[in-house]
């Protein structure tokens, strides 16, 4: 079930930074695994009107990640990618994020930081993205990441709790 109400927040902490906090009904190890293993990301990645059709990542400092979101409404496919900056399983991940431009080259690079905290059998996820060139780009990511995290929460209903082992 998507995190809503007091369980979900989205703020604009700094002018060009995005912060989203969600609490998931899943153990921290499983949340980390579903965020860092491609076979899981393929099931939930992207906003509602997109499906992840290609996703690879090498989860280590300096490792690369790359994904392609395919539109279900006829819009163009969106490629994205970056490099892992920090890894501290199962509580912290940081990486660069950039959309490819029309020529297949990375555009503006932002930094994504994900922190996971165990809270009474649930997992609190704090997602931050910084380095947006405009408020409009930041605000577009509020919607995109919000819908992706809704799909992420729904995905946990399908994943066995012992999958984190």
Record the SSE blueprint:
Elements (H helix, E strand, L loop, with lengths): L7 E4 L5 E8 L3 H9 L1 H7 L5 E8 L6 E8 L6 E11 L3 E8 L10 E10 L2 E9 L4 H21 L10
Antiparallel strand pairs: 1-2, 2-8, 3-4, 4-5, 5-6, 6-7, 7-8
Helix pairs in contact: 1-2
Describe the structure in your own words:
With 165 residues, this protein is an alpha+beta fold. It has one domain: START domain (Alpha-D-Glucose-1,6-Bisphosphate, Chain A, domain 4), CATH 3.30.530. The chain contains three helices and eight strands, in the order E-E-H-H-E-E-E-E-E-E-H. Helix 1 packs across helix 2. It is globular, with a radius of gyration of 15 Å. Mean pLDDT is 89; it is low at 1-7.
In short:
This protein is of the alpha+beta class and about 160 residues long. Strands 1-2-8-7-6-5-4-3 form an eight-stranded antiparallel beta sheet.
Name some characteristics of this structure.
single chain, 165 residues, alpha+beta, Alpha-D-Glucose-1,6-Bisphosphate, Chain A, domain 4, 8-stranded antiparallel sheet, 3 helices, 22% helix, globular
The stretches of 5 or more residues where confidence is low (pLDDT under 50) are 1-7
The best one-word shape is globular
Q: Secondary-structure element order, as H and E? A: EEHHEEEEEEH
Question: How much helicity do the residues have?
Answer: 10-25%
């Amino acid at each position: 079930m998507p995190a809503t109400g007091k369980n979900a927040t989205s703020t604009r902490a700094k002018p060009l930074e995005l912060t989203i906090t969600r609490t998931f009904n899943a153990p921290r190890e499983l949340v980390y695994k579903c965020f860092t293993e491609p076979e899981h990301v393929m099931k939930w990645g992207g906003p509602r009107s997109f499906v992840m059709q290609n996703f690879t990542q090498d989860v280590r400092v300096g490792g690369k990640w790359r994904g392609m979101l395919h539109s279900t409404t006829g819009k163009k496919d969106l490629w994205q990618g970056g490099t892992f900056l920090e890894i501290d399983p199962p509580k912290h991940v940081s990486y660069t994020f950039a959309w490819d431009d029309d020529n297949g080259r990375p555009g503006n690079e932002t930094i994504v930081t994900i922190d996971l905290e165990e809270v009474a059998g649930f997992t609190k996820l704090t997602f931050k993205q910084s380095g947006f060139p405009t408020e409009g780009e930041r605000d577009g990511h509020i919607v995109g990441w919000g819908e992706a995290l809704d799909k992420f929460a729904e995905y946990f209903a399908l994943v066995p709790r012992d999958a984190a082992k």
